[in-house]
Amino acid sequence: MRPELYPYLKENAAHGSPEFPMGFYRCAFPGDAPELPVHWHEEMEFTRIRWGRLRYSVGLDSFEAAAGDLLLVLPGALHAARPEEAAGGSTDSILFHLRMLEGGAPDLCTRCFLRPLMDNPPPLAPVVRPGEEGYGRLRNCFEALWECREGGGYRPLRAKRALLELVELVWRSAGERDAPDRRADRYEEKLKLVLRYIHSHYTESITVAELAALCGFSPAHFMSVFKKYMNCGSVRYLNDYRLRRAASALLETDAPVTQVALDNGFQNISYFNRMFKQKYGTPPRAYRAGRVWAETPL
After folding, report:
1. Of the candidates 162, 168, 138, 136, which has an alpha carbon nearest to the alpha carbon of residue 149?
2. What one-character-per-residue DSSP string does 260-281 give?
3. Is this prediction's pTM over 0.70?
């Protein structure tokens, strides 16, 4: 999958078509992509781990996911994934916007279940594993939705039926959880603000003090919160984003490597070359010559 399809902040890629706004994706890590960087989108995401082991973060939860596990990512939630082992893993994911379930009038279903799920999602366990309560129904729901990637005149009806069942399962699961930690919610919103700033200003010099000020934190507290919830330090995160943007530019433009480095926030070319090779296993020029990314929606 192309690196730019996974921006660190809000994903703007269209999923499906206007007539059938659902996207179906199969991805292998690290074969199709080395990792899924932290991002969020307005769509809901339903994922099945096909094989292997992956380290996921969803919201402020971090956990390992293995073959058979099912993941639910609610609209607006920060999430990321990376291989837990050298062998990596593979996922099947379905992305859809809850608006596709709304009718022409704001009925009870829309007012009581769909709109709250879009605007103020309930607390939800992000992963359901084989053997856990509710897993069987959730697995059947995923399989019914995954079958909708194929064409057919009844596909929209089958998809909506399965999606409505999924919404019911989400609310039933949420009703069994404790009230959310509102402090964690505030942290997530502040981290989104920081990510938005990085996304807009990555070509410029950015300091930890600047990022901390965006949150109203001291630099020390900011670094602690960022590392706890993002699983890496803010400097590493910034450099990683710059490297991904540079990798995309190397594949899609003929700009000299030095210019690519400068355009993506690296003022020291030797440092850029060293960091790039450390991340991608090859120098920038070799990466441009030999690496081909392919988008793989099903």
Report:
1. 162
2. HHHHTT---HHHHHHHHHHHHS
3. no
